[in-house]
Amino acid sequence: MSETARRLPASASEPLDLPERFSDVIEDLHVLRLPMVTRFRGITEREVAVFAGPAGWAEFSPFVEYDTAEASRWLRAALEFSGLTPPLTGGRSGAAQNSGTEAAGGTEAAPASSSQARTVTETVDVNGTLPACPPSEVETILARYGHVGTVKAKVAERGIDSLDDDLARLREFRRLFPDTTLRLDANAGYGPDDALTACEEFAAFDLQYFEQPVPGVEQLAELRRELERRDLPIVLAADESIRKAEDPLRVAELGAAEVIIVKVQPLGGIGPALDVITASGLPAVVSSALESSVGLAAGAELAARLPRTDSSRDLLGERVACGLGTARLFTTDLVDDEDALKPVDGAIPVRRITPDPDRVQSLAVDPGRFEWWVKRFEDCWAHLRSANRFS
């Protein structure tokens, strides 16, 4: 951890004033390039920025196409996890105060502070991730995860034009893993009519849930009503409608989904994510934003604090398999394999990660890309200062 890092003088309940320049508190910003095993989300390498604070290392890695306002939430999360700002929540998760509600580890949920709260479980379960790939590659890709009880398969890479390819891949998956729990994720890749066509085909694969088949909360709500009318046994989960919506609670208000997918960086931190889960009252699954092990550590901490309710047990099982096994999608990480948050027997540990100095040096982006990220950091920092509060 940098000796120059210090906690910013603010409280969780008051407006937060940031110094004019981020370099006043962060002098060890590093931008790194992580090559990927296979194309995922349209990219073959991932750029991430990491820095240290009083609580440890944190990651800032919004995708390059995101504008400043959206990317600023990711910076807010990194500042919270590094301990440079207070946790952004009112204390204990409200859901955990209700009778019969527990944290994921079977104990009362801990305070949401990422820097001070105790860890309520030593490990969290994770799912394997199957990207869009030829059927011949299914077994090889999933072998990287070892034994996992749940797999999430990406579909709709080219919208409805991918359906035949998706079905061929899923048939091969079910041939190889007939008893493994299967989830699908379309990343809002279908229009309403195409989503219904796809759901009619996918219903044969015994899905746990289908994540964000269409964009927009209203479209998702309409699709759910139509699925019920047609008696198609598909549970809908909301991802983009939570993390990219102005009002993430609208999903619950409209009954658009039965499960929500929460990600630490897009929601602005562990505290805000817990608040969304509590207010929605819906079962939640924590997922990664394609982060290095440094970023995954924040997701693991949130996953360890998930409130457990009867509905979450009914839909997701006693231990929720979260989408935090994505370190397997990189050919290398910021630490060696032994220390990385890569799943072993379907679980990852809940612990912080300190990057290996040699890897920080060898994975560094070229000077031009570093300057691009510094400018982005500055823009997001200024955006947060102008708001004068994390809200």
UniProtKB/TrEMBL annotation:
<dbReference type="GO" id="GO:0043748">
    <property type="term" value="F:O-succinylbenzoate synthase activity"/>
</dbReference>
<dbReference type="InterPro" id="IPR029065">
    <property type="entry name" value="Enolase_C-like"/>
</dbReference>
<keyword id="KW-0456">Lyase</keyword>
<feature type="region of interest" description="Disordered">
    <location>
        <begin position="86"/>
        <end position="118"/>
    </location>
</feature>
<protein>
    <submittedName>
        <fullName>O-succinylbenzoate synthase</fullName>
        <ecNumber>4.2.1.113</ecNumber>
    </submittedName>
</protein>
<dbReference type="InterPro" id="IPR013342">
    <property type="entry name" value="Mandelate_racemase_C"/>
</dbReference>
<dbReference type="Pfam" id="PF13378">
    <property type="entry name" value="MR_MLE_C"/>
</dbReference>
<dbReference type="InterPro" id="IPR029017">
    <property type="entry name" value="Enolase-like_N"/>
</dbReference>
<dbReference type="Pfam" id="PF18374">
    <property type="entry name" value="Enolase_like_N"/>
</dbReference>
<dbReference type="InterPro" id="IPR036849">
    <property type="entry name" value="Enolase-like_C_sf"/>
</dbReference>
<feature type="domain" description="Mandelate racemase/muconate lactonizing enzyme C-terminal">
    <location>
        <begin position="135"/>
        <end position="230"/>
    </location>
</feature>
<feature type="compositionally biased region" description="Low complexity">
    <location>
        <begin position="99"/>
        <end position="115"/>
    </location>
</feature>
<keyword id="KW-0479">Metal-binding</keyword>
